[in-house]
Amino acid sequence: MIFVDNERNYDAYLNLALEEYLMRNVRPDDDILLFYINAPSIIIGRNQNTIEEINQKYVSEHGIKVVRRLSGGGAVYHDLGNLNFSFITPNQRENVHNFRKFTEPVVKVLNDLGVPAEVGGRNDILVDGRKISGNAQYIAGQRMVSHGTLLFDSDLSQVAEALNVKMSKIESKGIKSVRSRVANISEFLTGKMTTEEFRLKVLRGLMGTDDFEQYRLTPVDWQGARKLADERYTQWEWNYGSSPAFNVQKVQRFPIGEVDARIDVQRGVISHITFFGDFFGREDVSALAALLTGVRYDPQHLGQALEGTQVERYFTGVTNAEFLEFLY
Fold first, then answer.
1. Could you please report the per-residue DSSP string of 217-242?
2. Are β-strands 76-78 and 82-90 bridged in parallel, bridged antiparallel, or unpaired?
3. Residue 305 CA to its chain's centroid (Å)
4. Helix-helix angle 285-292:299-306, to 10 degrees
5. CB–CB of 126/120 below 8 Å?
């Protein structure tokens, strides 16, 4: 197995692009182990509805990146206390959906460090019933990736806030995350250890020696990974627009009465919106609905669409800011 160091890059967009680039372009006959650590970010499963998984207000306020990955599974929170590992191997029957093949070596390393970890369920690693690692896979041609997280010293309060969705009611065909009780590996160590020290111990444990082969990324490799990041992983169309179609119902009582909004979203864009309720207004709300149809369902674009429009003409006494917060 060959180790690839991402050279302390903490950009989630670029790290996911690098993983895909390596799978498609580097050492196709060799097994590769890649490590990376991301700055605060939420990584969305391939088949998930992004808006259903995240607390958008909290994410925006805290500058947390939202990135869709190529593998399935649920949404996960990454920060500098979380170590990510990727096994890039041939697409062979004994590898596909065989999570144990890739998680058991990690469990052994943790056990050697005194952490009573064990494989749990199909693709998790647990300690005392609490999740410290989730794993997923994806395939492209003759190669595949089996990747996972290792919660070492993450801010678990951020996990709870960033993934805490506050929709009134939402229905979609996306794969919903199952929230598990989580824990940091550092809680189970007898002595103190930095994330970097932990990273080195896991690396040496997985490679089985201090004298292992390492592939040095070239300027061409970085150029290819950045191009892929620019074309896919940084794009709203990929991270939000690729979500399955969904319907949102928002209901709120204002001083002028109850407003009930039914919103249909296709590829991240409002395809239909209707307002019901016992509210009062000077003008027909169908004009406002027409204004919002075809707009990206995110605060920025909704706000831009409402510029130059007085919402209180349709909902007496309701400001544009109040209406925008209600919609999203």
1. PPHHHHHHHHHHIIIIIT-HHHHTTT
2. unpaired
3. 27
4. 130
5. yes
Q: What's the full length of the chain, in residues? A: 328
Dihedral of CA 76/28/33/128: which sign? positive
Q: What pLDDT is stored for residue 278 in this prediction?
A: 82
Three-state SS sequence of 95-120: CCCCHHHHHHHHHHHHHHCCCCEEEE
Q: Measure the CA–CA gap between 106 and 118, rounded to whole angstroms.
A: 9
Q: What is the pLDDT of residue 177?
A: 62
Q: Hey, what's the torsion of the CAs at 82, 137, 161, 269, to 10 degrees?
A: 140
| Distance separating alpha carbons of residues 14 and 1, to the nearest angstrom | 23
Q: What is the pLDDT of residue 176?
A: 63
Residue whose token pair is 């429009």:
309
Split the chain (328 residues) into runs of 10 and give each run's mean pLDDT. 91 98 94 96 91 88 96 92 96 87 95 95 91 93 94 91 66 60 93 91 92 94 98 95 87 89 92 89 91 94 94 92 92
- Quick check: helix, strand or coil at residue 125? strand
Tell me which residue of 93, 164, 201 sits closest to 101, measured CA to CA: 93
Q: Tell whether pTM > 0.70.
A: yes
pLDDT of 269 = 94
- CA–CA separation, 324 and 58 (whole Å): 16
Distance CA 58, CA 166 (A): 10
Q: Compute the distance between CA of residue 259 and CA of residue 315 in angstroms, rounded to an integer.
A: 9
CA distance 116 to 125: 10
What pLDDT does 165 receive?
60
